[in-house]
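About this split. The held-out portion is used to measure sequence recovery: a designer receives only the structure tokens and must propose an amino acid at every position. Recovery is the fraction of positions where the proposal matches the reference. Here is one held-out target exactly as it appears in the evaluation file.
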């Protein structure tokens, strides 16, 4: 008999509503921007604007300048963590989560070993740290300095080694609302003025993951974190958790007091940015992505901004802006009812009122031009 055989079954719709609730997408919350970033255990920040769109979809009365100010005050930072992608984290989480995933970042270098032949990685890290802590450097500046030390090495491999070996944060004004700035880097410890935590056990992070993304399987968390061998952590904490199973009989873990709303709870439309963690943080994405739309929000390595209707992926969207006018184009994957279209328009109007500086705007249903 499997451990899951007697656990209650949660349908995809039940998992959808539970996850939306924890992702602050079932109803908007009055949390501050910084508190929301902490609750969500970070926001995908491969590009500059996604964190702002992500919070506009989740927070009541969100002001992008609030998040920008938190960046300026060094309360939140942009750094490579989970899945080797740039995330926005609170300062505290930056100093905890980067050490947690450091071993995975080190393993990335195996794929660049030929380009790093003869390179002393400890010396590379020491040189890089000295350079970026003297003053923030662009990756180009850092790469050129490292090439002077190892002229026969592959330039890209040297860049990757510096990024993997050191917890490099993007300094402001990069990432601030309405500001521009190239990517310049220094260490998290230097930017935040305090040392990183020792490499932590994953226990607390696992509990926080369930609070933000659960109920979830071991593979789900491994997908989110980009880590392996987390089964031992789940087993160690099993007495503190409850279990369910999905419709494929996969065991799901959860916090006993976490919200699990009625599957029929209404879920309003939401316009999410590209790479939103809602769509990236489970091995099985069927709780948000219907089987018939799998892969529709991607083309190659390009991710599209996504539309949720009734809690599930139903389309993609694009925004074109000038000083005078903003045009939001929504491409549903299937026809929307008149009521659904009206609610999508309302959500679009709200998003544009918060995040667009254009004098006027237009919301259209049509075809999003794909790259």
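Reference sequence for scoring:
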């Amino acid at each position: 008999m499997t451990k899951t055989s007697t656990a209650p079954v949660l349908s995809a719709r039940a998992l959808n509503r539970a996850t939306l609730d924890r992702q602050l997408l079932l109803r908007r919350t009055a949390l501050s921007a910084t508190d929301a970033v902490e609750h969500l255990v970070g926001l995908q920040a491969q590009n500059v604007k996604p964190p702002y769109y992500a919070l506009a979809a989740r927070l009541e009365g969100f002001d992008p300048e609030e998040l920008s100010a938190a960046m300026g005050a060094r309360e939140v930072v942009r750094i490579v963590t989970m899945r080797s992608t740039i995330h926005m984290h609170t300062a505290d989480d930056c100093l905890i989560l980067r050490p947690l995933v450091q071993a995975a970042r080190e393993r990335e270098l195996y794929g660049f070993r030929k380009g790093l032949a003869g390179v002393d990685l400890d010396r590379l890290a020491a040189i890089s740290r000295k350079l970026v802590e003297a003053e923030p450097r662009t990756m180009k500046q850092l790469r050129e300095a490292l090439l002077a030390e190892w002229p026969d090495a592959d330039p890209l491999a040297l860049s990757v080694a510096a990024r993997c070996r050191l917890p490099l944060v993007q300094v402001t004004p990069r990432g601030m609302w309405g500001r521009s700035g190239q990517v310049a880097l220094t260490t998290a410890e230097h930017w935040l003025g305090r040392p990183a935590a020792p490499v932590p056990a994953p226990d607390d992070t696992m509990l926080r993951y369930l609070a933000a993304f659960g109920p979830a399987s071991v593979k789900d968390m491994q997908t989110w974190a980009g880590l392996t061998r987390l089964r031992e952590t789940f087993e160690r904490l099993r007495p503190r958790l409850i279990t369910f199973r999905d419709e494929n009989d996969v065991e799901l873990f959860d916090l006993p007091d976490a919200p699990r709303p009625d599957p029929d709870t209404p879920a309003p439309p939401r316009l999410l940015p590209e790479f939103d963690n809602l769509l990236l943080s489970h091995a099985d994405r069927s709780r948000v992505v219907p089987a018939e739309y799998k892969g529709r929000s991607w083309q190659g390595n390009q991710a599209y901004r996504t539309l949720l209707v009734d809690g599930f992926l139903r389309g993609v969207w694009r925004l074109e802006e000038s000083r005078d006018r903003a045009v939001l184009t929504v491409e549903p994957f299937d026809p929307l009812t008149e009521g659904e279209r009206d609610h999508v328009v309302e959500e679009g109007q709200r998003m544009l009122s918060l995040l667009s500086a254009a004098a006027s705007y237009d919301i259209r249903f049509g075809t999003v031009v794909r790259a």
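Annotator remark: The chain has a mean pLDDT of 95.
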